[in-house]
Design brief:
477 residues, transmembrane, two-stranded antiparallel ribbon, Growth Hormone, Chain: A, mainly alpha
Length: 477
């Protein structure tokens, strides 16, 4: 495979990625993108936002499930509901979110991204409709499994589409990440607001509607999925196989899957894969129970809604309004995640300005230090908590464009879907164990032990970044 080259835009029409100063040109130049880039960007930004809206609304529901349910009844046996057992239930859905990424990556190389993205959106809508009808925690678990299976195909499909269809790849990853973080932040916020007026099952049903609308849009969008590969001298869908890989038209057999997988893991991709796993473990470990952790900190007592409204209005609304309370931790949690929008953008810009390996080493090193400092600073008061929370939100997401871009540098275009499939198997499949790790530590140990464990995970990824920076990148030939 020839080295990845950045193609010049083929249209002068300004688009969503237009930047003054550009990513690589001189100061004052304006980079523009073509209609195909804008169409792809619109679809992946919409779908990515939907995926993470649902993903991060689940921890808000977790705080309700911990109080609403007492046992998990499997018929032949029962388990008490606590952070450890509920963490295992949530992890089952989150694990499938990652485990399905590998078959999703294989399929996307054969059938293309559009079909998988449409199926993903429809499946997520169905899963939240099942939560709406849920009579027990067992059915909740089934709904989460369905969500995980449907959502799992998105990242290999969406990221392969960006890497092969958008010419300004680094900026594409950045805007894609920003859209995901909008969903990550707005999902919990919207869920918390809806819970003021409805019970959690009704909220789940309402949340299913946007995915249905997005799926309808996905079936109508028009674009060339391989435009950037063709512009780089590879093969588009209409020009046959490229010389990048035997699997440039997709994996067609188990033997070919094993062959292409061995090629990937025989090289430096294996180190990037470990970085992805560390990112997933840290991400899931810190976020799954973060609303509950925040609730135990100073300044997070529930606030009666009646204290925020005029007395006459409270009397008019009745007893229900006087008993309703705001849960401050849910809104701070959402705000922390919204800061990740800036982290995603900065991370995407960094991929075009510095060596990716240096970025990985520095960003994960920062996450390790932040894990050690988080609780001491958060316990100092509400103001310091907001500050360290904002830094956490930024740092947690600045790493994502870095390892996503590293995949594009260390793998051939022909197996890009497979590569991202393996990557998100690591991020969300292996990474889902972060929920079990967090729940178990919080049940049987303490929050400081959890954050020390997270610091160790981030340190491993930082060291790998240093190792990669001292080796020669593959030529992909």
């Amino acid at each position: 495979m020839s080295p990845i080259r950045r193609a010049e835009p083929r249209s002068s029409a300004p688009g969503v990625f237009a930047q003054t100063g550009g990513l690589t040109p001189g100061v004052g130049e304006v980079r523009v993108v073509n209609r195909n880039d804008r169409a792809i960007a619109g679809l992946v930004m919409l779908a990515h936002g939907m995926v993470h809206t649902y993903e991060l609304s689940i921890p808000i529901f977790v705080t309700i499930w911990l109080t609403q349910y007492e046992v998990i009844d499997l018929g032949i046996t029962q388990f008490p509901v606590n952070q450890a057992t509920l963490g295992a239930v949530v992890t089952a859905g989150y694990a499938l979110f990652g485990l399905g990424a590998l078959p999703g990556g294989i399929v996307v190389d054969r059938v293309g991204s559009r079909r998988l993205i449409s199926a993903c959106l429809l499946g997520m809508a169905a899963s939240f409709l099942l939560l709406w009808l849920s009579p027990s925690l067992v059915v909740v678990a089934i709904g989460l499994l369905l969500w995980g299976a449907a959502a799992s195909v998105y990242h290999p499909a969406g990221l392969a589409l960006i890497s092969k269809g958008i010419e300004e790849r680094g900026t594409g990853f950045a805007y894609h990440g920003i859209a995901g973080n909008v969903g990550i932040g707005l999902g919990p916020l919207l869920t918390a607001i809806l819970l003021l007026a409805f019970d959690w099952t009704t909220v789940a049903g309402i949340l299913a509607l946007p995915a249905l609308v997005a799926a309808a849009y996905a079936t109508r969008a028009e674009f060339d999925e391989s435009a950037a590969v063709a512009a780089d001298g590879g093969a588009s869908d209409d020009s046959g196989d490229s010389n990048d890989s035997k699997a440039s038209s997709g994996i067609s057999s188990l033997a070919e899957l094993l062959t292409e997988s061995r090629k990937l893991f025989a090289g430096q991709f294996v180190l990037v894969f470990v970085v992805a796993m560390c990112s997933g473990l840290y991400y899931r470990g810190v976020l799954t129970f973060l609303p509950g952790l925040l609730a135990d900190l100073p300044g997070f007592a529930p606030v009666p809604i009646s204290s925020l409204l005029p007395a006459g209005l409270v009397e008019m609304l009745g007893v229900g309004a006087s008993e309703q309370t705001l849960q401050p931790q849910n809104y701070v949690y959402s705000g922390i995640l919204m800061v990740g929008v800036l982290g995603q953008y900065v991370g995407g810009r960094l991929t075009d300005r510095i060596a990716i390996e240096h970025g990985i080493a520095g960003a994960f090193g920062g996450l390790a230090l932040l894990a050690l400092a988080f609780l001491p600073i958060a316990n100092a008061g509400f103001g310091p908590l907001l500050l360290v929370g904002a830094v956490l939100g930024f740092a947690l997401f600045v790493v994502q464009p870095l390892y996503q871009a590293a995949i594009a540098e260390y793998t051939p275009a022909g197996t890009r879907g497979l590569s991202y499939g393996f990557t998100y198997l690591g991020v969300f499949g292996v990474g889902a164990l972060g929920g079990v790790i967090a729940g178990t530590i919080l049940t049987y140990a303490s929050p400081p032990v959890l954050f020390t464990t997270l610091a160790g995970i981030a340190a491993v990824a930082s060291v790998i970044g240093v190792v990669l920076s001292r080796t020669t990148r593959p030529t992909n030939e």
